[in-house]
Amino acid sequence: MINDLQITTRLKVILGLIILALLSRVLPHEPNFVPLAAIALFAGTYIQNRQWAVLLPISLLLISDLFLEIFSGNGFHSTMVFVYCSLGLIASIGFWLRDRVKGQTIVIASLTGSLLFYIITNLGVWLVDGMYPMSSSGLFECYVAAIPFFRGTLMGDLFYNLLLFGAFAAIRWRFPAMIGAKR
Q: Does residue 43 contact residue 53 with C-beta atoms inside 8 Å?
C-alpha cells in the first residue's frame, strides 16, 4: 500500500496543511471547534489514493490523541471508534467533492460532515457512556444535550475547511506548475 502513495510536491503541500491544522488541536479552543472533520474532508478531496485519503487523517488523529493522552490525559475516550468511523465517512464525502470543488459545494460537504459527525458520535455516547437510558427517549435526550456542542462542530468545520481549501487554492493559484492546476 505504501507504494501506492507517490510523494509529490503536491502531496507534501497537502500533508503540510493537514499537519498544521492538526497542530491547532493543542491550542485553546471552544468545545468541538477542532479541525478533525475538515482534515478528513480535505484529505478525501485531494489525496488521490482513496485508502490513504481515509487512513491518513485517522492515523494522524490517533497519533495526536496519543500525545494528548500522554500530556493531558484527554486523548482517549470511550467513543473514539465512533469519532474515527465518522471521520472515515467524511473523507468519503471528499471523494464526491473531488470534481466539484467550489465554494458552495465545500460548504454543503462541510455541513453534511458536521451533521454526520453529530449523529454518529452522539449515537456512540448514548450506546457506550451509560449517561442516558437505553430507550428512544434516552437517545433523544442525548441528541438534545449535544446541541450546544454541535455549534462548535459547525463553526469549527466551516472555519477549518475555509482555511484548508482556501490555502490550497491560494498555493495552487500562486504555484500552478508545482502543485498542478487539476484537483
A: yes
pLDDT in tens, the chain (183 residues): 445 556 788 888 888 898 888 888 777 778 889 899 999 999 999 999 999 999 988 998 888 888 888 887 777 878 889 999 999 999 999 999 999 999 999 999 999 999 999 999 999 999 998 999 999 999 999 999 999 999 999 999 999 999 999 999 999 888 887 776 554
DSSP 50-79: HHHHHHHHHHHHHHHHHHHHHHHS-S--TT
Compute the distance between CA of residue 54 and CA of residue 41 in angstroms, rounded to an integer.
Answer: 9
CA dihedral for 129, 131, 137, 139, sign (positive or negative) = negative
Nearest one of 60, 59, 164, 55 to 109, comparing CA atoms: 164
